Amino acid sequence: MMHGGGGGGGGGFGGGLNRGMGPGMLANVADVDGAVYNSHVTRRALAYVKPYKWSVAFALLMTLAQAALMTIGPIWTKVAIDDHISKGDISGMTVYLGLTIVAYFGGFATNWAQFQVMTVVGQRLLQVMRGDMVRHIQRLPLQYFDRTPAGVVVSRVINDVQTVNELLSNGIIQALSDVLTLVFTVAAMVALAPRLALVTFAVMPLLSIAVWIFTEKAKVAYRRSRVTVAVLTGEFAESFAGVRVVQAFAREDSSQEQFDKINEENRVANISANTLSSMLLPIVELCNAAATVAVIAYGGWLMVNNEVTLGILVAFLAYITRFFQPIRTLTQFYNQLQAATAAAEKVFELMDEKVTIEESPTPITLPRVRGEVEFRDVTFSYGREPVLEDVSFHADPGEMIALVGHTGAGKTTIASLLCRFYDPVEGAILLDGDDLRDLSFKTLRESIGLVLQDNFLFSGTIADNIRYGRPLASDDEVVAAAKVANAHEFIMRMQLGYETPVLERAANLSLGQRQLIAIARAVLANPRVLILDEATSNIDSQTELLVQQALGKLLAGRTSLVIAHRLSTIRAADQVLVLDGGRVIERGTHQSLLRQRGHYFSLYQQQFAEMVPA
Predict the structure, then answer these.
(1) pLDDT tens across 442-467, in order?
(2) CB 331 within 8 A of CB 214
(3) Which CATH number fits domain 373-608: 3.30.1360.70, 3.30.1390.10, 3.40.50.300, 3.30.559.10?
(4) Single pTM value for the model
(5) How many angstroms separate the CA atoms of 357 and 449, rounded?
(6) Second label for 197, Cα 20 to 30 Å away, from 23, 172, 485, 609?
């Protein structure tokens, strides 16, 4: 958004998962089960498939062809045996056995074609759905990120979308293929020999009970497995992100013990889930074997009595395998459908989050921003209690406004409102006389820069990070900005200079170096209004001098809003606002406020520990 950003650098996301959160709050995957069918969610999910309807139609046609070809193969085998082999007709046998081979090869080819088409469709669905989610996330108000752990958002975009995609791109087609195979197989069995079909179906009550037990038990087991995976992921991500603190306090053993405990829970949960899963296959195979033995025994007796032929018996044995295999996979599809429904509900829950910071339908684009800033009776609240109440101040172009006050007084909220990360509940914030809500995002983002106490540096090179505010800036312009920010010398001392990669969390750069790079980024972006949020805190005195010099160059001729405890910055301010409980309780220059011997005077004595004359 604004130039500068916040955070620690790099690009990891694990820090958003908090230890101590209950399993239901962690979301490595869809960690609760949804209804097997939700019409509203289904319609929204299928809307993503609509642009590829002809590809899906082709895949369905291939699925139908595959089921038909795989069903007709045993029939031609039966014809070859009964009508040709039994009569010594070698040429007729060769024709029908050849047709059987063609049918099976055609079934393979149609299955391959269906798989290839749906793979392409699936990857496109994944790309589009994730793209839509990321675009929506980038437009969400910061309140959403204030209340939602980063790990949950990442899970929605990565894991839950993947779960939905697997169902849309493969699961439904596979389930349809299984249903068609089952229907065609049953029809063929009944048509060939109704009494043998009844013998095969006799095992269905046992199989139905087994499938029902598996479905109910597996639902609980797989849910527990998903939850433990989520907790395990969160624990590892947090330990990885906080490894410096773990080592600093010699908590390696405790951290390992905590991880081992969760790891053990995950192991037990997975064993339980896999045990149930492994039980279903033997039961299906047992039913398959029982049906096969029964068909051979009864079919043999029928053959002795000339009521069925050898070809019918051979075809039936082939159909028995095709009868049980789709039953097994359809059982797994039930669990997949349930997990995908839960995942889709969470995906669309995120997509339904309201975008409250929107550009005006008829936005104002200012050709040139002078930098006049005004807060007019601004009231703001993150929830029920107001954080700011009736805040008003005015800054002419080029003036510096300093904000001081205890933690929680509302200083950073004022900066966030000026960036339009939030909109005021009451009142208005004006830039060059226009309400921020009426300005185009282009005008707003190009006009206001932000340098924080701990600035975020992205993955990439140092040059990439300086160029972030102006992606098309030349190398010479990047170097010139770095020189203004007093960053050029330390950058050139690095082995790769401006092409030095920024490591995870900017681990290869000191806090002061990050500040100088952020200042260079703001210099290159050249905003007319600049916000400094304690930009010189927590750095050594030598680096502070470099930062102060760089800030002096950066602030020249710009309107600035400075949140600072440093005396030098406050002394240079044209106006100091003292905040307490969300209200401006004092205002004036540094010297005039000291002479009042009020709240600012007390803060000054506490924070700067200097004796002030009466």
Answers:
(1) 888 888 888 877 778 888 899 999 99
(2) yes
(3) 3.40.50.300
(4) 0.69
(5) 18
(6) 172
